[in-house]
Amino acid sequence: MGRPLFVQQLPPGRPPFQHEEAMIPLTIPRQTDMSMPMLGEEDALFTALFILDPHMIGEYLDKVIKHSNVYNLWVAGTSQEGLTDEDEDATIPPMHPTWKSTFVGKPVEDAFAHLATLPLDLSVNRVYLVVLDDILYREKGWIIIYNIDEKGVITCVPCTAHMTLTYINSYMWHNWHRYLEEWRKQGRPVF
Questions:
Q1: How far from chain centre, in Å, is Cα 182?
Q2: pLDDT of the residue at 40
């Protein structure tokens, strides 16, 4: 009598990844008719931060600055002074307790439209912007980085909140499409 034959069975395959229902809108590109000035000049010193919930701005800025030690986020709707190439800092916390974002409740298209109206001598990135959303920040510790391309298509990828400036300052914009695919197919945020 010989040895019994063992047949190795492979475990069942994983089901394909599916986004939570609340995340699905973040995977769908939005077509606009916008044309951004200075498209292709993603090396601007400062990146605009649009606030959808003013109560968490201080906590978020403190977290980002503690991790990166730089103040390269400009809170949109605040003074535009100090946003040239000669300046070193954008918005430095704490925010005034009565400050309120004019972008609460508005779509990201309004944020890009606002960036398009800024004077060209300001060193503000007009291709990428950061949105601080209460639900994503509180539940997952994420912010959203949005991009607008030369055809006016807006796409976005979540990023872990404390790594915002690490990603932005790394000038890894050439990896945007890879990050976008990883987000869409695997649900992975940047960093």
A1: 15
A2: 58
